Amino acid sequence: MSSNGSVVPRVTTRTLQKMRDNDDPITMLTAYDYPMARLLDQAGVDVLLVGDSMGMVVQGHDTTLPVTMDQMIYHAEMVGRATDRAMVVVDLPFPEGQIGIERSIEAGVRVLKDTRCHAVKLEGGAEQADRIAAMVTAGIPVMAHVGLRPQNIHVDGGYRLQRDTDRLVADARAAEQAGAFAVLIECVPSSVAAAITDAVKVPTIGIGAGSAVSGQVLVTHDILGLTTGYTPKFTRNFAEIGKAIGQAAADYVAQVKSGGFPSKSESFS
């Protein structure tokens, strides 16, 4: 529902395909809770990703690997309830997308049945084609994820730029042929992302992949200045909310300590 009470059409897989076909850039941001998802939805973000990145930006882990399926469902349920327009995609956390196709289908079914979310994201390309096809056959929309794969960090030996154009193009094509409605491309040279986008007809969403893609995704905490420590080269601060929160908390502490809060007008008589 829009601010004037009119019904807002929901973004769907068809919407995204039409945006790709019309060269209308797709916007995507992460969301992990109701208030943030509500704000992002009302701001006009096309797709919200309930990412397993929560393991790092919300839970304080060094990787995404500790995040569980139950945690994903908990956060996805909040985000799903907050949105009227945005499509909501939920990451399959490690190892739900790695061990047993039936397990992946069951995880995807949980997302669709237990939350108001609309699709899942699955890391991998050609080696995941059978899994993607089985999930799509079961009625679960799948966004593929190629390039840097955070769940593969220990195999890859860290977070590194992915440059193998032939392999990455093959991954994206295999995912598309298996039925993926979009492909997320992470941390590759711009030329590689352009080659992938040219090779497939479905939307491509880039993160650290340059501008020759169908759309962009970033971690919301990064663009708001809420991330502590390292921030990737490919992100941009659009606000310094972290500093504002810190200052507000410091002002509150000072006012309570000095007796300035609460005042008579902020108290009941």
UniProtKB/TrEMBL annotation:
InterPro entries: Pantoate_hydroxy_MeTrfase, Pyrv/PenolPyrv_kinase-like_dom, Pyrv_kinase-like_dom_sf. Signal peptide: none annotated. Catalyzes the reversible reaction in which hydroxymethyl group from 5,10-methylenetetrahydrofolate is transferred onto alpha-ketoisovalerate to form ketopantoate. Homodecamer; pentamer of dimers. One of its GO terms (biological process) is pantothenate biosynthetic process. It comes from Neorhodopirellula pilleata. It comes from the Bacteria. Pfam families: Pantoate_transf. The active site is at 186 (proton acceptor). Keywords: Cytoplasm, Magnesium, Metal-binding, Methyltransferase, Pantothenate biosynthesis, Transferase. The keyword Magnesium applies. Its EC number is 2.1.2.11. Binds 1 Mg(2+) ion per subunit. It is found in: Cytoplasm. Gene3D superfamilies: Phosphoenolpyruvate-binding domains (3.20.20.60). Belongs to the PanB family. Its cofactor is Mg(2+). The gene is panB. One of its GO terms (molecular function) is 3-methyl-2-oxobutanoate hydroxymethyltransferase activity. It is an enzyme of class 2 (transferase). Pathway: Cofactor biosynthesis; (R)-pantothenate biosynthesis; (R)-pantoate from 3-methyl-2-oxobutanoate: step 1/2. It catalyses: (6R)-5,10-methylene-5,6,7,8-tetrahydrofolate + 3-methyl-2-oxobutanoate + H2O = 2-dehydropantoate + (6S)-5,6,7,8-tetrahydrofolate. 3-methyl-2-oxobutanoate binds at residues 52-53, 91, 121. This is 3-methyl-2-oxobutanoate hydroxymethyltransferase. The keyword Methyltransferase applies. GO terms for cellular component: cytoplasm.
